[in-house]
Amino acid sequence: MVHSFTFPQEIITSIQERIEFLGRCLNDANTQDKAMAEIVELANSRQISLNQLREELRQYRYKFDKLDRLLEEFIIKCKQGELALILFVKYNFLLKEIVVDKYWYFGLEKDNRETEKELILAHVNFYQEFKTQAELDSSYKDDYIVLETLKHVIQSMIKASLKVNVLSEEEINALDLGDINPQETEVMLTSLASTKKWDQVYRNLA
Questions:
Q1: pLDDT per residue over 59-111, tens digit each?
Q2: Domain containing 187: what range?
Q3: Which of 126, 77, 118, 86 is CA-nearest to residue 99?
Q4: How far is residue 183 CA from its own chain's centroid?
Q5: Domain count, the chain
Q6: Closest CA to 101 of 163, 150, 43
């Protein structure tokens, strides 16, 4: 079922358009007064200069391009019949880093919030579907790693959504996620996804 996980193309396009828009504004002060005012406000809220904001946007673009390449590689592996579990883990933690943990403020623009909401709901739906499927299957290692990885991402997305009013407390409660506190760290999940060995302790945890 991991093979069915894909990042919606419309969300990728939306984020890429947002990156390009911000880049044009930062490189051309005459773009649009309203747009430039938004950029200045963002820099002020971060208490950084426009040059520092430009550097952060450059890093954001670089990591998002890397994210896109990881997704392409993941899809190719899946079409070849490979599970590509390690790519799934790397992709999701990079997504968590750039969209949620480090660069969430680039998504503050009002029109982009619906895209962020779609991104959260897409992950929640996949998590719930996969969890239901996993309960009917006995593939401990793969199921456990996928679910633990998704817990990290969803938990961070929800926290970020509250900062920018993408989702309300009521909407989050309505998702009925149950306990999504991950039991494994990113390092451990990356290690487990990279090896064919599966310790009995983790079988019992799963």
A1: 888 888 888 888 888 888 877 766 688 888 998 999 888 877 777 666 655 55
A2: 2-205
A3: 118
A4: 19
A5: 1
A6: 163
